[in-house]
Amino acid sequence: MSARTHKPHEIVERALELSRADGCVVIADEESTANLRWAGNALTTNGVTRGRTLTVVATVDGREGTASGVVSRSAVTVDELEPLVRAAEAAARGAGPAEDAQPLVTDVPASPDFTDAPAETSSAVFADFAPALGEAFARARAGGRELYGFANHEMTSTYVGTSTGLRLRHDQPNGTLELNAKSPDRTRSAWAGRATRDFKDVDPGALDADLAVRLGWAERRVELPTGRYETLLPPTAVADLLIYQLWSASGRDAVEGRTVFSKPGGGTRVGERLGELPLTLRSDPHEPGLESAPFVVAHSSGGDQSVFDNGLPVAATDWIRAGELHRLTTTRHSAALTGLPVAPAIGNLVLDGGTDRSLDDMVAGTERGLLLTCLWYIREVDPATLLLTGLTRDGVYLVENGEVVGEVNNFRFNESPVGLLGRATEAGRTEKTLPREWGDWFTRAAMPALRVPDFNMSSVSQGV
């Protein structure tokens, strides 16, 4: 009999019953996905998948401290539950004391729907989107464009149970749309992406219309050299840069002098002003439209997450408040080491505090500069300054006297998101966006466009 014939909460309870360790955490992730793919103005594939992953964390107390062992497996049958639990216990007994050891979390009210069946997605999520996509295909075909892309919707129900009595559950919908429009000779390309919870707020026709305008801009080609240019970064590009900044905001690493947030001579830059614009970078598990788990879900320890923190409630957190560094990410363990407040990572990111001007308004206010579409292949060059490198893609446009006058060549850039926040002269309206580079790992973001007076285009790229 498969474990899928049992409800996830029953699997969690049974695994906890089987545990002989001093402490135990069980995480059941019930996942379902639905997707559509298309190429050349025609649907190519669609499908629905289901799956379950079970993670068991065993903790064993010893004279030198508490050790932990973690084992995760998918498609576990009921008969395989006990071997899985024993494997986690054996891993704990074979490990040395865990540096991040803390008492398992207690006293968190149980989720009222813990014993309910998991939420699931299906092809029905595309009931309105698919016909609209077909209409976009027809318009693109008539306009001499080819559309490529995919739409994906996931629903993950996560159940967390612990030997200390926690019984928590969170349902996480996650949808992404990526749409490329290309000229028939493939020399011009434009991209648009959206993140969504249910595809009810996504209009493929409107996206195609925007991409048609961009392909029109690209009919005129202008070659530009490397250099520093006034640049308008759209929300998707801002999200990719600031997500990497958040991933690099470890409180422990900063205290140990290893990051851009380390203070020369010791300590951190918390309390320091990072830029003149009064921008706030924040996360909130209850942010409307960007809701994420209101408690820690850690399938492994490392960096600034700890399996010992599973179930720890998370709350709205300002990482940067009105331009000033306010929080760095910590676990309970790293907070105790550094003296910083406990501040676990949260599954969304918002930058606000700018004006109500749209990206089009910002273009209209530009005398001469570059308008980017998106960034990709972002990699770290120097953690001490958080210098990143990457490439522009699918359209870099020249703006003169408030109008886009053509497409320019792609570039490789070298920039630090912390430095960009310090030099930005304008932030526009905050809106939900899909990070293109990190969209496989982090989709719940809302960002404004940013105006940077001297964005460093370090070399010319031959990419489209």
From TrEMBL:
InterPro entries: Metalloprtase-TldD/E_C, TldD/PmbA_N, TldD/PmbA_sf. GO terms for molecular function: metallopeptidase activity. Pfam families: PmbA_TldD_3rd (PF19289). GO terms for biological process: proteolysis. It comes from the Bacteria. This is Peptidase. It comes from Streptomyces parvulus. The lineage of its organism: Bacteria, Bacillati, Actinomycetota, Actinomycetes, Kitasatosporales.
